[in-house]
Input
Amino acid sequence: MTFKKDLKTFSPDKIRNFSIIAHIDHGKSTLSDRLLETTGTLNERTKKDQFLDKLQVEQERGITVKAQTATMVYNFEGNDYLLNLIDTPGHVDFTYEVSRSLYACQGALLVVDASQGVEAQTMANFFLAFEQGLTIIPVINKVDLPTADVEKVKGEMKKLFDFSDDEFILASAKTGIGIHDILQAVIKRIPHPEGSDEKPLKALLFDSWFDEYKGVMCLIALQDGTLQKGDSITLAYTNENYEVLELGLMYPNETPTDALYAGQVGYLVAGMKTVKEAHVGDTIYHTKQSVKPFPGFKPAKPMVFAGIYPVDNSEFEQLRTAIEKLTLNDASVSVEKKSSTALGLGFRCGFLGLLHMEVFKQRLEQEYDVTAIVTAPSVLYKIKKKHSDELLNVENPSDFPDPNVIEEIFEPMINATILMPKEYLGAVLKLCQEKRGEQKDMSFLTEERVILQYLLPLTEVATDFYDQLKSITSGYASFDYEQAGYQPSNLVKMDILLNGKAVDALSMIVHEDNAYHLGRELVERLKKVIKRQLFEVVIQAAIGSKIIARESISPMKKNVTAKCYGGDITRKRKLWDKQKEGKKKMKQLGSVEVPHDAFLAILKKTE
Output
């Protein structure tokens, strides 16, 4: 598709930049499809369901993982308006994508499902947009459903967000109800970008991805100035110079144009080849006209850490290249090279949550054909040593200091918000108590729905909390969280010993109250996956020098007395004693080789 209009005719007052924010499955991507179809950006030949969900993982899981941009032209009262739409993810793990996208907008559509009502992520996304001073338009979607309760949803949104009756737009993205109302409200209510073509170029790089043929592609929002093909530009963060090789609009895919002007959002290709060159949040300006850079984005703080290793050590370079390209597309992942005695060379990666980790692994396999082992998730602890004021950061059990030098251990906490029907309240309260949670607040949104506020340890949430919550509430609860700093906790390092030797890769940091239960479970699972040896194998879970759980695998035996027929019993005893001595010597000299499959069974989250 080509863009036929001259972009210069769209002065900043004829431009609107907005995003769509909502909880998972409230209809963001379907609404994006209808907006693109209504404005003629998609035609019968190019349209498909969830057009902006371009990743295979998004199509398979039915969720938006990556924020996507599309430009539309809409005629209102005789004037053409250039509308830049950003469809954002809804899951809590991808909040960083949402916050980055909002920097390039002046307004947002807050979409709420008419049958499900306000959910936890609806609240989180509203306050994210509100804090950035965006104009927010409330849209109640799926009003055509038999289960829709528009008045109830309006009441919830008024109570929580202080909207008035005349602000709501009723819509159905599936049937097309209210689509023109939404487009007209975007033009009427959302302010146009402030900027001028006459000023020096100043553009924000707010997203990037890797193209096999063009290299690094940057998504940019121009605050001021004009950018043309062939211009010499500089990136403020790296102070590197580049030539503009291609630029254009996402209409809805990459559509080249000769220039971009103030207030417009588009893409840029400048021959960048590596991840480090395109720093998300960077400022772009003409090489000979430097400007004051944007403050940039707050770097994402990883919440969950996991090791990523190649299945075969010979594939390490392939894994490294794939991770480099994928982190360009997902700047919220932190990466550090690591070596494991059990799994060889690999990487220690930090993620914003468990779903984020699963999606990252799935994208490695689907987009880069790399099969990787992902270890069990862990979190970042802070340890205060005796006679020292410094706090030591520890996220790997192998870095855990000797207990004798530790004065205090701090673990990360989160403020969790849980919305659910009131009949599940008892079960959820019990779950939160089991996870060492501290209740902060409880209020009724309506007669039937409860909002719970809990302070929870991140390490408890980073395993299977979300799965358990969905299970006990039949999928009706929604969950959102934000960081709440660190607080002291009674944590210990638990080692797994095989015949008295600690296996580093199986060590973990656990709360002392849960140590016995976890140790018991771990040694029982190890007993099932370690093969029998010619000597006895003793599997132990230990905290320091104290053994808290033990299992043993009996040795394989040869019947050494099979050739003895009759005769004195002392002859048989002599052979048995000789065998016993041999087994004893073997146990001292031999080492237990833990098979690869055993590590996978232990390191991965238990089903």
